[in-house]
Write a structure and sequence with these properties.
eight-stranded parallel barrel, alpha/beta, binds 6-O-phosphono-beta-D-glucopyranose, 478 residues, single chain
């Protein structure tokens, strides 16, 4: 393939504070959502779909892998040096809100927390690695969850505004690229992660989720405005969990169904954050589902003024769906629902692998919004085997990434404006949905196992050298 990636394309890797940092009690940090999520696939998945979680820890019964995570808190220098060795142009990370405001509702920030991210940004600057910072990545301070009920409560808008004002002012000379809420549209599927609440019951789930989302739209718009004021030239994006929805067959009933599901899941949040308006199609959905959003005067004007500069997205899978599913088909789809696609293989965690879906996603998004796109998450969670000589021959990961990068190249040829690509979990980290270490994404292996044992030593996998060459050739050699 001839080189289609533009000069200055931002190659790199992505992480989130709670999945790498550890140091959960250090530097004055307060507890957050991730600190009370137990390890283990069954435990996590149950929590994500359950109602009524009390956000308490039970250390007799569960392990809490995010407490130590991979100890980036102490080892960031070594890790950043490895990213630099791969040639990263950018590194996506998040700021843990509860390091800056340990409870979330204080008036004054925690200096030690602020100083930690200064050190991280300075270390990145040493290697000319541009930070790309997610402001909220599934790590709402626990106090805001327990005392206020998470994002259902309008008060969080005010606390968030204080938090972003502090970090924009503090890091204005160090960070240019920001993302507001990670995978904002995943909130209605998994309110626990994005909105920091566990639904009381199935009846209130939708109403509360959309109300929480409205608060995040307002908070995000405010952050965009503040960011532009405080940091001239900053670029602030939204972040969508994008999964194209395919109709199971050409039956128009299924095509229409897939179209509507896609609008609701993939486009609703983008329409609000990019176009600055609630889309027309949502009115009917709200009516039919008895959803009433409480808004304050000025909310819609603020949303209109605080539109994002670019769209970032995570892409792991597509979804195939049909209107009437048989009982056998129900639950056969992947993490985000639907039915099994007979043309696709799945990962060991049942996530269907579909590089062409990324090409489709980028064309759909660019076609609808015409703003620059940034793929900020993509990758294969897989079991890795360490050979006797210490090597990890992860050809399956290389194959996966190669095909997805190719798909991005094809989308660029189709006119899509793409700013960059940050592979998810560029260093092994704690999985969000399964709380496992064994679901590994990294180019860098971390010797930490599911039971918490291990030396925490880092080593280079085969994919490390492969990705280094991809970056060095600006995507020409795959
Ligand atoms: C995204 C999240 O949904 O997918 C990340 O933004 C997460 O936090 C990633 O880690 C991969 O999912 P998982 O469940 O395999 O960790």
């Amino acid at each position: 393939m001839s080189n289609v990636f533009p000069d200055g394309f931002l190659w790199g890797g992505a992480t989130a504070a709670n999945q790498v940092e550890g140091g959960f009690h250090e530097g004055g940090k307060g507890p957050n959502l991730a600190d009370v999520l137990p390890g283990g696939k069954e435990n996590r998945l149950k929590l994500l779909s359950d109602t009524g979680f009390d956000f308490e820890m039970d250390t007799d019964k569960y392990t809490y892998p995010n407490h130590e995570a991979i100890d980036f808190y102490h080892r960031y220098k070594e890790d950043i040096a490895l990213f630099a060795e791969m040639g990263f142009k950018t590194f996506r990370m998040s700021i843990a809100w509860s390091r800056i405001f340990p409870k979330g509702d204080e008036l004054e920030p925690n200096e030690e927390g602020l100083a930690f991210y200064d050190r991280v940004f300075d270390e990145l600057a040493k290697y000319d690695i541009e930070p790309l910072v997610t402001i909220a990545h599934y790590e709402t301070p626990l106090h805001l969850i327990k005392e206020y009920g998470g994002w259902r409560n309008r008060k969080l808008v005010e606390f968030f505004e204080r938090y972003v004002t502090v970090i924009f002012n503090r890091y204005k000379d160090k960070v240019k690229y920001w993302l507001t809420f990670n995978e904002i549209n995943g909130a209605t599927h998994m309110p626990l992660f994005g909105l920091g609440f566990s639904p009381e019951n199935e009846e209130t789930r939708l109403q509360d989720s959309f109300q929480g989302l409205h608060h995040q739209f307002v908070a995000s718009a405010k952050a965009v405005q503040l960011g532009h004021e405080i940091i001239p030239g900053s670029q602030i994006g939204c972040m969508l969990l994008y999964a194209p929805v395919y109709a199971y067959d050409s039956n128009p009933e299924n095509v229409l169904y897939a179209k509507k599901e896609s609008l609701l899941f993939n486009n609703f949040c983008g329409d609000v954050q990019v176009r600055g308006e609630y889309p027309n199609f949502i009115d009917r959905y709200f009516q039919e589902n008895d959803i009433n959003i409480e808004m304050e005067d000025g909310d819609l004007a603020l949303i209109k003024e605080g539109t994002v500069d670019f769209i970032s997205l995570s892409y792991y899978m597509s979804r195939t769906d049909k209107k009437n599913k048989t009982p056998e088909e129900l639950g056969q789809g992947n993490l985000i629902g639907g039915v099994k696609n007979p043309f696709l293989e799945a990962s060991d965690w049942g996530w269907e692998i579909d590089p062409k879906g990324l090409h489709i996603a980028l064309m759909e998004l660019y076609g609808r919004y015409q703003v620059p796109l940034f793929v900020v998450e993509n990758g294969l969670g897989a079991y890795d085997k360490v050979e006797e000589d210490g090597s990890v021959n992860d050809d399956y990961r290389i194959d996966y990434l190669r095909e997805h990068i190719r798909a991005m190249g094809e989308a660029i040829k189709d006119g899509v404006e793409l700013m960059g690509y940050t592979a998810w979990g560029c260093i092994d980290l704690v999985s969000a949905s399964s709380g496992e270490m064994s679901k590994r994404y990294g180019f860098i292996y971390v010797d930490k196992q599911d039971d918490g044992s291990g030396s925490f030593d880092r080593s280079r996998k085969k994919s490390f050298y492969w990705y280094k060459n991809v970056i060095a050739t600006n995507g020409e050699e795959l």
